[in-house]
Here is the input.
Amino acid sequence: MIVSNGTIIGRGHNRRVQKGSPILHGEMDALENAGRRPAAVYQGATLYTTLSPCAMCSGAILLYGIRRVIIGENENFLGEEELLRSRGVTLEVRQDSRCIRLLTGFIRTHPELWNEDIGV
Here is the structure.
């Protein structure tokens, strides 16, 4: 989810399987749904994500100049947090138990999809 000035401008879900897409992680879907916006909108926005952003999603965060990311959890997967921090992005990792349970259950139930999703 992407929020700008207190308004949700884009929601997203991982829809790789549903759309047969190699790139539709939740962050990418949220950006797609936010649509074309002036750079200042993205630069002032906050991106909320269930899981630590992968290299692809981190690249999009940097490309669009999003400066703040709230991460639900990074226990199941530690993405490119150091890269984001090194480029001035403020990260807040919540370690939310609901996010951890959601991802742990998905990994246990669908290991082949998880491995495909993270490039294993």
